[in-house]
Specification:
Strand order of the largest sheet: 3-4-5-2-1-6-7-10-11
Bound molecules: alpha-D-glucopyranose
Shape: globular
CATH superfamily of the largest domain: Glycogen Phosphorylase B
CATH topology of the largest domain: Rossmann fold
Strand content: 15-25%
Length: 475
């Protein structure tokens, strides 16, 4: 049994794997609490009870009902994070959460006031549940713009509770007309000094969280430095600079039990750094699944990601004709922007022997790809932390990544992967060629694969850094 340290922390977020997942945020919310629980923290979660949540898979019981929030009523259900005893509170409200979406837009970015309303409503609701659940957390750990108004409300209400805001993706901010926001919240706008910030007539919800949370952090040390600059600061760098002293960088970890090639049930055959020949069977299996020539010597490159600008998909598309000339195989798995999906489908039709575009969300296929490809592409424009490159290394797929954000913090050039600096397709191509050259040398490649597979990407170290922040807040 872990030693209790009497700390009570409530995670407040819009996603959580596997209950309600869209992107990397969900992976963090679904795995970090388990590591914190092991440190003896009483950690619980609060999420909206979206219509899309599968009640059969995640049965919940009603623990409180009829709580008044902004003229509406909410009910509180309780379930558990699967394979744990961690309590998850699901906040129910027909008007705002019953739809079958986590986000309304394909891109997951804000596209309408409806999106703004539901997360403001959720944020306000969270501060009203403590009496009903008879549990009073020391720290509210909020994530991204969706829950950035929790610190704002806590301050306005002078609630005796501390807040930590984690920045996972600064590009998605929740900007909207200030008047509409204030009307919806039934406040005047003179309650806090921070309401003066923002561009034109807009209020930026993320920026308000940044200005009002007690402590801030983002998900890698390098991204922490980057967002203080105009290049990566997404127009809120000045507000971030004001909070520089309170802004930390803590690298995300992985759920290393789930992402483990020794036990992964989706692989054809399990393997470890000691029996890498077994990995080749997964490669053959993948080639069959994708309809590629089955040949262990042909290098397979892979990309698994949201097909979004952030992820550098345009660079990959540009180099595909060159890759085809080099007779490599390339698989792309993901969904996202329509124009990328279309282009990738076309390229797959044009080069069926070399390119397989899997335009879908398929978690099992993703694991087979990690376990079968040789090189993993992640040429992101920016990357707060990134999960794919860590999973890839753990599975012995060598990452070729851009030297930015968490990619720069997790991939060691020429040791566990290959990095390039400039956001240009010629740079990506040059680096892929470099990797392919090393690949030809079996011994040198095996050394890199083993080194990559032996990196520690668990939450162990980072969860202790979070504990330190919580303690600092709770004193
Ligand atoms: C966002 C970021 C990604 C990060 C994830 C979890 O999706 O884009 O880099 O790994 O959040 O923090």
């Amino acid at each position: 049994m872990p030693k209790k340290n009497n700390l009570k922390v409530l995670f407040v977020a819009s996603e959580c794997n596997p209950i309600a997942k869209v992107g990397g945020l969900a992976d963090v919310i679904g795995s970090l609490p388990k590591a914190l629980d092991e440190l003896g923290i009483d950690v619980r979660l609060a999420l909206p009870k979206y219509g899309v949540i599968d009640n059969k898979k995640y049965p919940s019981k009603l623990v409180a009902s009829g709580i008044n929030v902004l003229g509406e009523k909410i009910n509180i259900y309780q379930t558990f994070l699967p394979e744990s005893k961690i309590i998850v509170y699901l906040l129910e409200n027909e008007k705002f959460f019953s739809e079958n979406h986590i986000y309304f837009e394909r891109t997951a970015f804000v596209g309408s006031f409806r999106e703004i309303e539901r997360f403001l409503f959720f944020s306000e609701s969270v501060l009203k549940i403590f009496d009903a659940i008879s549990w009073f957390p020391d720290v509210l750990h909020c994530h991204d713009w969706h829950t950035s108004f929790v610190p704002v409300f806590a301050k306005i209400k002078k609630q005796n509770i501390k807040t930590l805001l984690t920045i996972h993706n600064l590009a998605n901010q929740g900007r909207w007309n200030k008047k509409e926001i204030l009307n919806f919240l039934r406040i005047k706008g003179n309650e806090l000094e921070s309401f003066k910030a923002g561009e034109k007539d807009d209020l930026n919800i993320f920026e308000q969280g940044i200005l009002n949370a007690d402590i801030l952090n983002t998900v890698s040390k390098n991204y922490r430095e980057e967002i203080l600059t105009a290049e990566f600061g997404e127009k809120v760098e000045n507000s971030l600079k004001k909070r520089k002293k309170d802004l930390h960088g803590i690298l995300n970890g992985l759920d290393v039990e789930k992402f483990n090639p020794k036990t992964d049930p989706d692989l054809k055959i399990n393997y470890s750094p000691d029996n890498l020949e077994r990995r080749l069977e997964n490669k053959t299996d993948l080639q069959k699944i994708l309809g590629f020539e089955t040949n262990k010597k042909i290098p397979i490159l892979g990309l698994i990601n949201r097909l979004a600008d952030q992820k550098g998909i345009d660079l990959v598309i540009e180099i595909i004709p060159e890759l085809v000339k080099m007779r490599v195989q390339l698989v792309i798995l993901g969904v996202g922007a329509i124009e990328y999906e279309k282009k990738l489908r076309e390229l797959c039709q044009k080069y069926p022997k070399n390119v397989s575009s899997q335009i879908k969300f398929d978690a099992a296929l993703a694991q087979k790809i990690y376990g079968g490809i040789d090189i993993f592409l992640m040429p992101s424009r920016f990357e707060p932390c990134g999960l794919g490159q860590m999973i890839a290394m753990r599975y012995g797929a060598i990452p070729v990544v851009r030297k930015t954000g968490g990619l720069a913090d997790t991939v060691k050039n020429n040791k566990t992967g290959f990095l390039f600096e400039k956001y240009e397709s010629s740079e990506l191509l040059k680096t892929v060629k470099l990797a392919l050259n090393v690949y030809k040398n079996k011994k040198a490649w095996a050394k890199i694969v083993k080194m990559a597979m032996s990196q520690d990407f668990s939450w162990q170290k980072s969860s202790k850094e979070y504990l330190k922040l919580y303690k600092k807040l709770a004193i």
